[in-house]
Structures are given as C-alpha cells and as structure tokens.
Write a structure and sequence with these properties.
nine-stranded mixed sheet; single chain; 58% helix; alpha+beta
Length: 416
C-alpha cells in the first residue's frame, strides 16, 4: 500500500473550495465581505456554527468553506487569509431586483455578531434570457446615470450593469442579464465578478495608507538630504550627526515594518484583479464604459502610487545606510589618525625615556666607580709600604673601565 503524504487530502480539498453551487436565472444573491484582521482566530467559524445550530442545519463546516441551507435560500461561507465572505442565494423570479428584505430574516441573523468589519456588500440580480432588457427609466432608478457600467461578458453570453456605488441601503448593485449561459456558467460568472470586486477593494486598502504616510516620508527625505550635506561639509559634530542618522534610520525601519505587508498585499490583490478581469472576456457596449475601463481607470493609478511609495521607502533606507556608512568611515579614519598620533607620541616618549635611561646609566657608572675606588683606597691604606694615593689614582681608570664593561655586558644579555 502506498503511503499518502500528510497534506494530500487537504490539497485535494483546496481545489474544490471557494465555489458557488450551481444556479440558473432567475435568482438573486447577496454577498457581504468582512475584514477579519490577524487576531480573528476561530471566531468566523464559531459564528457560522452558531448560525447553523439556530437553523438546524447539519452541513459540515470546515475551516475555510461551508454551504448551509437556511429556509429557502443557501448560504455559502468562505474564509480567506484576512477576510471572509457570506453569500446568500435565493432562486426564483422577483419583481424588485434590489430589495434586502428578500433575504430576511436570515440576513439579520447573519449580520448579528458577525466578526470583523464589512468591507463590501453587494446585491446581485440575475435575469433570465427571456426577460426584457431594463428600460432607461429602470436603469436610472437603479443606478447612477452618469456612472453606469454596461458591457458584455463571457464572450457575449451575458451582459452586466452596475454603477459600483454604495446605495442608501448600504449595498452595491449588480444586474446580470443571462443571454445564453448554461450549466455552471452563471455561478462561475457571478463568482468571478465578485472576486474581481473583492480583490479590487482589498488592493485599494493600501492607497490610504500610502497617502497618509507620504508626508512623513517626504519629511524624512528632506532631513536625510540635510544630514548628507552636513556630512560632506562638516557643519556639525560627527557624534551628533551619527545620532540623528540613527534616529532617521529607525524611523524608516518603523515605516517599512508598518507598511510592507499592506503594500505586498496590494500588489498581490491587484494582480488577482487583473487575472479575474481577463477571465471575464469583456466586450464593449456602445455608449457605455466597460468593466475593464472602470477597474483600470482607478486601480492602476492606486497600485502605481503604492509601488512608488514602497520604492521611495526602500530607496530612502538605502540612502540612509550609505550616508551612515560614509559617516562611520570618516569617524574610523579620524580614530585611526588619533591612534597614529598617539603611537607617534608614545614613540617619542620611549626615545626620551631611553635617552634618560642611558644618561642615568652613565651616572650610575660614575657613582658605582666612586664607591668602588673609595673601598679600594681603604684597602690600599691598610697595606704596608703602598703609596695609597698613587694606587688609588691608578685604580680609578681600571674601576671605571670594569664597571662600564660589566654594565654593557649586562645590557647585552638583557637585550638578547
């Protein structure tokens, strides 16, 4: 029997999550997306389990995906890295395409104690192929006339309408006209449209952060230019400059740590949005802007702003490191010069000490010889028949020579 990899089952399950059940027009959907944050833990799953217990649903609930049946409608729950989505699906015809009351009381039960903060909430209406296309009056009643997006998707198999604005009830609106969708195509189309909107909003979360911190980065950039000029012109003390550069580098490190995750997430979500946009196979409708025009008009500049902000931070950090290295090099050179001057001074002192020592040694020869000649004089005086004055005079050069030779021999041995 072949041993399974520990992750085989979870990898296989991952390929089947995050999909909507099959449905067909006419039907209505509502999706609520919440930002969970990093400390949500198991709160979303516990919230869903409590909801299932109140409705008597026995469907299995995994950590990332679940489908519950709630009295005439389906609830599809998906857990992502930092957000979760709740999608309510109700089949059947309808008179009013955008009325949250169609999803009550289940909607209120879901919103009660829902973990996280709502980032996006959308009502979706799917009209069948035999339904008449909305009139201009209906379209103006549902959407803002100056900002309506109308385009074909799925190579003309469907047409979408929306203004992508928050309405008075707090929900966005999306109308999908089924031309000739079949099988899983309606579910796949709605899921791609919603993923595009969700990823687009997640990507745009980085823009306010970049805009809020740009003045701080500009101030640090100007201060770094001043410090670099001070380093090159020696306008202040090196230790003071080093303290200010250390503080500036610490501020840059704080900004990088504060923004790196959000800026990286912005790039990732923007790429996912572009991928979903390409998969919709959009076709234009004369006289209206397309979904691609609407998305790229604002998403691309926002992503470029975030990328520019990140590049400025990285460049500023590198320049601060270069300036600090330059200042440290100058400080090291100054210390090396101080050490060299100190060694030169010590060498001069050593030479003076050596000369003084040699002088003292010369005086020592005279002093030792003086005492030895005095002792010899006492010996000469004690000897009978010896002219001690003449003997003492003869002993002086002999003693001086002997003492000098003895000290020279001792110094040579110590040197060896």
């Amino acid at each position: 029997m072949i041993a399974d990899h520990p992750l085989r089952a979870s990898i296989a399950d991952e390929m089947h999550v995050r999909r909507l059940p099959r449905f067909a027009a006419p039907c209505r959907l509502m999706q609520v997306v919440t930002v969970l944050g990093e400390k949500a833990g198991d709160a979303p799953r516990r919230h869903l389990e409590a909801l299932a217990a109140t409705t008597g649903s026995t469907a299995p609930i995994s950590d990332r995906y679940a489908v519950l049946q709630l009295a005439g409608m389906s609830l599809v729950w998906e857990r992502h890295t930092e957000f979760a989505s709740y999608t309510l699906l109700r089949d059947g015809s309808f008179d009013m395409p955008f009325d949250p009351a169609h999803f009550e009381p289940q909607l209120s039960a879901i919103l009660a104690d829902m973990p996280g903060e709502i980032l996006r909430a959308t009502q979706i209406a799917l009209l069948p192929s035999d339904a008449p296309e909305p009139t201009d009056a209906q379209r103006d009643a549902w959407f803002s006339s100056e900002a309506t997006v109308v385009c074909d998707v799925a190579d003309g198999a469907a047409r979408i309408m929306s203004d992508f604005r928050l309405q008075a009830d707090g929900y966005g609106r999306l109308l999908v006209l089924d031309r000739h969708l079949a099988g899983d195509e309606p579910a796949q189309l709605v899921q791609r449209l919603q993923e595009l909107g969700n990823y687009r909003n997640k990507a745009l979360l980085g823009l306010p952060l970049a805009q809020r911190l740009t003045p701080a980065v500009t101030g640090l950039e100007a201060r770094l230019a001043e410090l670099t000029g001070a380093v090159s012109e020696r306008r202040s003390q090196d230790d003071q400059l080093l303290d200010e550069l250390t503080y500036l580098s610490a501020e840059l490190a704080r900004l990088v740590a504060e923004t790196r995750y959000r800026m990286s997430a912005t790039r990732a979500y923007a790429q996912l949005s572009i991928d979903r946009l390409a998969s919709l196979r959009i076709g234009p409708v004369r006289g209206h802007q397309t979904l691609a025009d609407f998305t790229e008009r604002r998403l691309t500049p926002a992503v470029r702003t975030c990328e520019s902000f990140s590049a400025r931070l990285e460049n500023l950090s590198q320049r601060a490191a270069w300036t600090s290295e330059l200042l440290r090099t100058r400080i090291d050179i100054a210390l090396a010069k101080q050490n060299r001057d100190l060694l030169t001074s010590m060498d001069r002192r050593t030479q003076l000490q050596l000369r003084l020592q040699q002088t003292v040694e010369g005086l020592s020869v005279v002093a030792i010889s003086y005492y030895l000649v005095g002792l010899a004089k006492y010996v000469f005086e004690a000897l009978p028949g010896v002219d001690y004055d003449r003997a003492t005079a003869v002993a002086v050069p002999v003693v001086l020579t002997g003492v000098a030779l003895a000290l020279w021999n001792l110094r040579r041995r110590l040197h060896d």
